[in-house]
């Protein structure tokens, strides 16, 4: 039998310093707070950011971010001011998880879980992002310049006017849009070579709501059984155009070039993909 | 081509014609359409093949004219091929489907509560009379520190150790996760009202918490499950505690499908999925494939709630629960929730409900032991669910190491449920497991919550009586105190797993 005596090491909270020991890592200039994250643990960084909001910060510049987790998550303060967070370095897991309205720009890449169960706001990533991007996202927008990993947009949701949007400039790995229940996902494939197909298999498996738009080649066998392929219609083009323009503005692409290409539209064939397997 | 059903009716509907006044109450009460009035014959007719035995009509018949009982008609007696097995098989031959069911496992697995007895004081240490002396049932859920540092200055005692958040409940009984969607708005609200009146908690399940009910948040454990339905920052922050649902005792290892029939516009709003779609909860949480991933989500939730709430992780009781529980504690869980083999459900494949998982008694005893052996038992509270029927079961669970008990079926039964197991049909005649407005309005939250409060009061009194009999005046003193338990009719290995002596052993 395993026996460890006494205290277990806390993976996250071990040796977290008190907030008053951390102020030396911030430079405040009016509404701008600049934090050097080099020596900070993620909880310390998030403690500091929360403190800064209470002190009136409206804009953050985070320097030397090396995998710090949950940036933006702790800023779920009721009636918050919407702040902008500029991240230099690599944002850690669960960037903007449960985010409620702030804007985050990553000047670099992000790890797994970007926008996990995000409620509102905007995340812009000038690079790539890891797995489970936009999982269960409920609102707001995410723009990612390059590729995303596996299991993107799983169980994204929507209700009435609250419709989350994810735009990915590159390609995606498997299980893209799995179990999607709402939202709009646009996959642009800008970095695909001539005639190269997207990487993802099982696209839209178990999908029962929302819409996926894809530019670039996708073979039939890459699609889940629960999706049907359509041509985008006028309403669709409106949405694609609006978001591709925003995407292009963020990352300096020519939106007309992107929009002049063919897009396909994927929607669920059934709202009850597994309704028939049960005996009542 | 039409295929005739070979099913036998499950129940007999006996209408005593001399008593029946043809008021048609039974016809209106039965959503399964088991009764029908025929004008031409001026007579009530019964459709036994439709009756589910929920007894609603019997209770509401003004003249007590009805008797509903299990159908005595049976196949040739066969210990192997029972009636139920034949019926299930025929149903599958007719539909090709997975058989669904509701409520908890009804099979004859040993119920260990019925093989454990409690102790009482005689002569050598006096029992306590709870009517005259204070009895403490208050329980704190959450992580406890390894040690306490005190600063004592005369009469002024200060705790200097930094404490982690705990939730206080007035009785060690909490309403288990039942989602708005699986149960009606009225039933859901009744649980919230009762929890808040009595000073305990209800669990929202995975279907969110409608905005106007967030005032009950202080008494809510809010769930974050694989479908992440209704999980917004306010939902997390209005709560008493947050629970990550990994599994459920009635269906370990599989996800949930709330059938489209139950996804009304209101459900659609709280869950943020299109009306009429199946609400699909994937089997795993797709961001959790390891203990390290679990830790990620635990801390994401702590971050989202500013480290102000205990975070619970709920798993189904399975073979290696002790090792998993140890990992959960190390991952940062403040509460370990275990749901056993007999835990209920709104809908689950019958084959899974009846065959997967282990009894909660065994899971509880082995998890508690493992955490104690590893010296980390104080780091998490243990909440157990799945098969508690009365206050005796509750007290035995606490003596076996639980901090508190989750009750589901008892709460439903208090509101009117008769364990008919048809929750998955969405036609619950008691207005509990349905979204049909004609049925849900049968349940008045003012009355149903009183029934629930009465239940909590009755059980709490009984627990105090039993504690008093043991000569103990605080539930804390019996927690994990197996000396107060003895086994009756159990094998050595069972006593060993439970960590209790046999009756007569001193
Ligand atoms: S409720 Fe009773 S009295 Fe009324 S019709 Fe039905 S059986 Fe007859
Ligand atoms: S909740 Fe309703 S449908 Fe479910 S077992 Fe109880 S009475 Fe039957």
Element layout with pairings:
The complex is a heterodimer of chains A (280) and B (506).
Chain A: E1 26-29, E2 32-36, H1 42-54, E3 59-68, E4 84-91, E5 100-107, E6 120-125, E7 141-144, E8 165-168, E9 181-187, E10 209-215, E11 227-230, H2 234-251, H3 255-259, E12 263-268, E13 278-279
Parallel strand pairs in A: 2-3, 3-4, 4-5, 5-6, 6-7, 7-8, 8-9, 9-10
Antiparallel strand pairs in A: 1-2, 10-12, 11-12
Chain B: E1 11-15, H1 25-29, E2 35-38, E3 43-46, H2 56-60, E4 66-70, H3 83-95, E5 98-101, E6 116-118, E7 139-142, E8 150-153, E9 156-159, E10 166-169, E11 173-175, H4 185-198, E12 202-203, E13 220-224, H5 233-237, E14 241-245, E15 256-258, H6 265-271, E16 279-281, H7 291-304, E17 311-316, H8 321-330, E18 335-339, E19 348-349, H9 350-355, H10 360-373, E20 381-385, H11 391-399, E21 404-407, H12 409-415, H13 437-440, H14 445-470, E22 485-487, H15 492-498, E23 501-502
């Amino acid at each position: 039998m395993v026996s460890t005596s006494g205290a277990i090491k806390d993976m996250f909270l071990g040796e977290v310093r008190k907030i008053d020991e951390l102020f030396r890592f911030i430079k405040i200039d009016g509404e701008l707070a600049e934090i050097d994250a080099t020596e900070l643990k993620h909880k310390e960084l998030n403690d500091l950011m929360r403190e800064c909001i209470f002190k009136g910060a409206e804009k953050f510049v985070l320097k030397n971010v090396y995998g710090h987790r949950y940036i933006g998550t702790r800023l779920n303060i009721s009636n918050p001011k919407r702040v902008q967070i500029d991240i230099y370095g690599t944002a850690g897991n669960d960037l903007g998880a449960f985010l409620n309205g702030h804007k985050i720009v990553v000047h670099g890449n992000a790890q797994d879980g970007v926008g996990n169960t995000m409620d509102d706001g905007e995340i812009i990533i000038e690079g790539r992002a890891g797995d489970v991007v936009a999982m269960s996202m409920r609102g707001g927008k995410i723009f990612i310049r390059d590729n995303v990993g596996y299991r993107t947009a799983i169980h994204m949701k929507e209700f009435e006017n609250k419709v989350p949007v994810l735009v990915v400039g590159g390609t995606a790995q498997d299980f893209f849009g799995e179990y999607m229940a709402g939202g709009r996902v646009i996959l642009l494939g800008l970095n695909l070579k001539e005639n190269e197909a997207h990487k993802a298999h099982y696209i839209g498996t178990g999908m029962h709501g929302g819409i996926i738009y894809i530019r670039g080649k996708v073979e039939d066998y890459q699609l889940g059984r629960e999706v049907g392929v359509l041509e985008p219609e006028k309403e669709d083009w409106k949405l694609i155009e609006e978001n591709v323009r925003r995407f292009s503005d963020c990352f300096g692409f020519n939106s007309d070039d992107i929009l002049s290409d063919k897009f396909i539209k994927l929607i669920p064939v059934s709202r009850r993909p597994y309704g028939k397997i049960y005996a009542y | 081509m039409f295929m005739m059903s070979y099913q036998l009716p499950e129940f007999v509907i006996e209408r005593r014609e001399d008593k029946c006044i043809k008021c048609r109450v039974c016809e209106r009460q039965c959503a399964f359409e088991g009764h029908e009035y025929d004008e031409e014959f001026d007579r009530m007719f019964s459709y036994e093949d439709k009756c589910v035995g929920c007894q609603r009509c019997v209770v509401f018949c003004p003249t007590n004219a009805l008797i509903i009982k299990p159908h005595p008609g049976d196949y040739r007696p066969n210990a192997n091929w029972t009636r139920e097995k034949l019926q299930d098989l025929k149903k599958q031959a007719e539909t090709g489907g997975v058989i669904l069911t509701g409520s908890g496992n009804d099979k004859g697995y040993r119920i260990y509560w019925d093989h454990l007895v409690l102790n009482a004081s005689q002569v050598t240490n006096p029992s306590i009379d709870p009517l005259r002396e204070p009895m403490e049932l208050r329980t704190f859920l959450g992580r406890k520190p390894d040690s306490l540092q005190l600063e004592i200055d005369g009469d002024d005692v200060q705790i200097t150790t930094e404490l982690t958040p705990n939730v206080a409940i007035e009785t060690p009984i909490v309403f288990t996760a039942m989602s708005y969607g699986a149960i009606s708005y009225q039933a859901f609200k009744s649980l919230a009202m009762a929890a808040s009146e009595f000073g305990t908690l209800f669990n929202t399940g995975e279907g969110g918490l409608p905005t106007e009910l967030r005032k009950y948040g202080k008494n809510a454990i809010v769930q974050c499950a694989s479908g992440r339905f209704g999980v917004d920052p306010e939902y997390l922050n209005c709560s008493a505690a947050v629970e990550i649902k990994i599994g459920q005792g009635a269906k370990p290892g599989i996800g949930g499908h709330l059938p489209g029939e139950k996804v009304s516009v209101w459900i659609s709003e709280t869950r943020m999925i299109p009306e009429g779609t199946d609400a699909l909860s994937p089997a795993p949480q797709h961001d959790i494939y390891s203990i390290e991933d679990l830790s990620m989500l635990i801390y994401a939730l702590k971050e989202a709630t500013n480290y102000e709430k205990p975070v619970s992780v709920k798993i189904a009781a399975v073979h290696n629960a002790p090792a998993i529980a140890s990992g959960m504690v190390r991952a940062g869980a403040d509460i370990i929730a275990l749901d056993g083999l007999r835990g209920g459900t709104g809908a689950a494949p019958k084959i899974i409900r009846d065959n997967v998982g282990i009894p909660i008694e065994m899971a509880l005893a082995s998890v508690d032991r493992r955490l104690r052996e590893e010296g980390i038992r104080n780091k998490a509270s243990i909440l157990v669910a799945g098969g508690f029927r009365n206050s005796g079961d509750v007290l035995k669970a606490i003596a076996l190491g639980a901090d508190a008990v989750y009750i589901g079926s008892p709460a439903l039964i208090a509101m009117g449920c008769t364990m008919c197991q048809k929750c998955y049909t969405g036609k619950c005649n008691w207005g509990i497991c349905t979204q049909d407005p004609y049925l849900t309005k049968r349940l008045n939250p003012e009355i149903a919550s009183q029934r629930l409060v009465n239940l909590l009061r009755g059980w709490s009194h009984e627990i105090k009586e039993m504690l008093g009999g043991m000569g103990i005046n605080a539930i804390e003193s019996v927690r994990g105190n197996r000396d107060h338990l003895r086994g009756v009719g159990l094998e050595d290995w069972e006593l060993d797993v439970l960590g209790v002596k046999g009756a007569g052993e001193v």
